[in-house]
Amino acid sequence: MADQQGHANQAHVLFENFVAAKTCKEVRQTFAELCRHLEVDPKDYQHFYIRLKERLNFWKAKELWQKIDKRASHPDYEQGKTCAKTKCLVLGAGPCGLRTAVELALLGARVVLLDKRHSFSRNNVLHLWPYTIRDLRNLGAKKFYGRFCSGSLDHISIRQLQLILLKLVLLLGVEVHMGVKFNGLVEPQESGATGWTASVHPPSRPLSSYQFDVFVSAGGGKFVPAGFKIKELRGKLAIGITANFVNRHSAAEAQVQEISGVARIYNQKFFQNLQTEMGIDLENIVYYKDDTHYFVMTAKKHSLLKKGVIKQDYGDAEQLLAPANVSQEALLRYACDAARFSTGGKLPELEFALNHAGQPDVAMFDFTSMHRAENASLVRERRGQKLLISLVGDCLVEPFWPLGTGIARGFLAAFDAAWMVRSWAKGVPHLQLLAERESVYQLLSQTTPENTSKNHSAYSIDPRTRYPNVNLSSIKPKQTPCDAWQT
Questions:
Q1: Three-state DSSP class for 278?
Q2: Cα–Cα distance, 459 to 440 (Å, whole number)
Q3: How far separated are the first and last CA of the chain, in Å rounded?
Q4: Quick one: 278 and 354 in the same domain?
Q5: Residues 272 and 357 in one domain
């Protein structure tokens, strides 16, 4: 009896260690220890979650199971039977890749997720739309991260969001491989003998032999699979700056007011004073207090030139912001001065947080040119083997940073992709499947908190629960691009 109690107590400690883990490596290590102790096999994806629940009889775990079970009981998932024979490969452990993996796992699919990074190191903070907060709360985000959206907070650091979602996908039986580079898809070699596989580095026998019929790329704007056409949307020159400062969580820091988004047209006096006193000319500025003190601003070119941040003026944005034409020291001063002025000098000891390379976490980027994929999905067939390919996240639509659209539209696209995979598993004809997905995709770039459904509790992977005026057949099967079906 004492042995049983000791075994149970040890399981509780291991579960609490897993929930409290603060790095990607720590999450995976504590999860592996928990699985070994409970003698459950995470690769048995169809039964893993059920067996984990049976063997972990702990009140803190039960609170989480209730959240997950409520989501899993939604009729859309059909008790995980719909996609029981579907095998998926998801590329990218950013928030959108992880959120997609959650939905695919709830549908009952086998899900393998790859990411070339070994760790989560992005300090930047994401603005969350109300539905996104509700969605994450319903998935138990607060159980993993107690400070999640406490009080009036409507934001979270990318790193914290990744940690929450990584813990969730592991509990749902998703197989996660970090530090693995995806080199491309490998076509079936012989008629009917093998299916679609992936080329990865370092070479891995289990991964290289994994055959899948769904591939979701959430690999970011720089990774778009062959076959997708990218459209460039150009606007007037827009230069963004992000800066992260160390948050010591002191009483003085707690008193400093956040800036949820001040645009020049709404507070001209503030921006005029900033320009007069500091020589800094901005279009807008946002300040969020999270793991770091995070600032994002849109700066005007003439003030960057005047302050020596940009050394020489060029008409071409790429040449203008090339590393050789930017003074890093002047950029640090510019960001520091803007942060100090906008918070009334109330932030003590402004010390830059460090990025993944151990350098001050300040970045300047050009979002004059935004990219979006012309279509969200395609089907490839080789030697009788079909593969459904879908895009989510930045490789589908690049976000406009100051408006906080990235994660909101990213999650909407994750739900849309999961709905398409559900239809794929149900045997919906491929041209009809693609036409429906593209009909929904037409709405994505226009979504705002105002024109999406206000009934957040009813949101599911069914697009009709989220887009009030969606017409799933606005594009007809015969109108799908000819290269969306590739044989």
A1: helix
A2: 15
A3: 63
A4: yes
A5: yes
